[in-house]
Amino acid sequence: MAINYDVLKEIKERADIVDVISYFLPSVQKKGRNYVCICPFHDDHKPSMQISKERQTFRCFVDNIGGDVFTFVQQYEKCSFEEAVLKVAEIIGYDDPRLHEKKYVKPVDNNLVPIYQCITEVHKYYKYCLTTDEGKIAREYLEKRQISPEQQLKFGLGYALKDGKMTIEYLKQKGFSFKNIEDTGIALLQTSGMSDNNAGRLIFPILDKNGQVVGFSARKMTSGDDTPKYVNSPVTKIFNKGVILYNFNNAKQTIKHDGYIYLVEGFMDVFALDSIGITSCVALMSTKLTKQHIDELRKLNVEIRVCLDGDKPGQEAMMRIISQLNEANLRSRYVSKTGELRDPDEILKQDGPEALKTYVNSLVDPFDFIINYYESTSPLNSSEDKKKVINHFVPMIARLHSELDADNYIYKLEKITGFTAQAIRNLVSKYKSGQKEVVVNNKTDHFENHQTKKVPAELRRLENAESLLIKQMLVDQRAVEFFEQKIKYFYNENYRILSNFIVDYVHTYKGEQVSPSALIDMVNLSGIEQKDEIVNLLTTLSFQLLSIEYSPQTLQDCEKVILEERAKAYERSRLRQAIEGKDIHEQARLADEYLKSILKESK
Fold this sequence. Notes:
The chain contains 27 helices and 16 strands. It is α+β, with helices and mostly antiparallel strands. The protein has five domains: about 5-100, Zinc finger, CHC2-typedomain (DNA Primase, Chain A); about 115-230, DNA primase DNAg catalytic core, N-terminal domain, CATH 3.90.980; about 250-370, Dna Topoisomerase Vi A Subunit, Chain: A, domain 2; about 380-450; about 455-570, DNAb Helicase, Chain A, CATH 1.10.860. It has a five-stranded antiparallel β-sheet, covered by helices on one side. It has a five-stranded mixed β-sheet with strand order 11-10-12-13-14, sandwiched between helices. A four-stranded antiparallel β-sheet has the order 6-7-8-9, covered by helices on one side. Strand 4 and strand 5 form a beta hairpin. Helix 5 packs across helix 9 and helix 23 crosses helix 25. The chain is globular. The model is unreliable at about 435-455 (pLDDT under 50).
């Protein structure tokens, strides 16, 4: 479509670049004659994008990107010029018949067209099968779960007949090849033929943001066998769950009007919130929030309300998400109700709509959620617990743009922990001065430089014990349970990250042997910054597992070493802090006292 020049000119005259960029980015602030904001085109922590209201232009002087209002939208949305013009017109409320002379259709890779056509036909077939006599078992299940016929229609639910070959035959009659069917992810061609992997299951279609079916999640309707409760589409040319937010295609219609979006854990939670009138809701389909998810959420420029399950895995996932959303400078609040372990669907079914409305509106800011989390899992009784909380908040406070917000957090921390506001400010300043080089270690009370990967001699014993324990976790789930109960965290950063993936895997696939290969897929799809390091670590460890057998005695030995060496690391950090700024004689005296205490403990 060629945009009429007169229309283009009118849109440009009415569109203020500051307002349009503010639609996408929450961080736009006035600075002198211009405006500044965090640049979305690179990993920016200080506002490096400048916007000129006078010239109606923008520029980032770090990655040298700039232009006008259309250029910004084109770069931000990764769309064509024509699409950018239409988007700007939509934002400013401009309409003209000349804009609709020919609807612009985003070009699709011709190789993907038959896959989209085939999977769309599969979905039609599944929806029909839900209405059949055999589909009655799925309809009864939906009725039992209080999912109304209107919701079944809205979310496109279906059923796959028990005879999986019938799905294949239907698609063959429609003219699709075995290769087309394989590419949808519902079946593989084998020597015995081809059969639908979803056979005998309730079907939840997964749509992309444009409303195109790209995959399925299928729930079994019978018990008594060892097949998994859910079968999900594998990664295909058109589907990757690390990119898709379930129900985004529906939610995007109301998100801007509501000014928020709820982020929940699964399909049933989306249905539960939909039933009480909350339509601006998407699900992760797991507890992992990826970089691609964050990129989509950033474009909305609304408050993100996170509502994962109230159990331990759900709350731990919310803690991870807080760090991710804060790092991305996205506004967020968190559903928090002490003692509530049920998910939204359970609350709705057991206590009714009003109880669910009260629950999902029990929102707290990230600071209060983290405090509630620590107090519920590890009450702040000891100095170590309080320091752990402070070190968790230091990076968060350092990234705040508002000094008032930073002061508010600091004084709250002072009240909760007893540490002075000035001491906390000093830690924040120290963190800021280091930026990329200095990272707060949440597990001790000091700052650790992770630019060098060489392990100091005094930490080698700890490193070896942690390495041995993580290998035990990879060979037996009992070691994972031991880790969660006794150890809780690793000192080594990469082991700490890897342990989170292992714990998530075990909670997701209860009873299954931990698979390094599956873990590598999880890491690759997560979008974390250290992805390559963790994959390399996993690959190295996987070659060492053949000589490792599960051993309760090994676990106990590891626990003893880890707890001892962590305590020593803590004492060393205290010594470093104590001698900082002292003269050489005082440093020597303090070091001598430290050595005497270590020798005394070793006797």
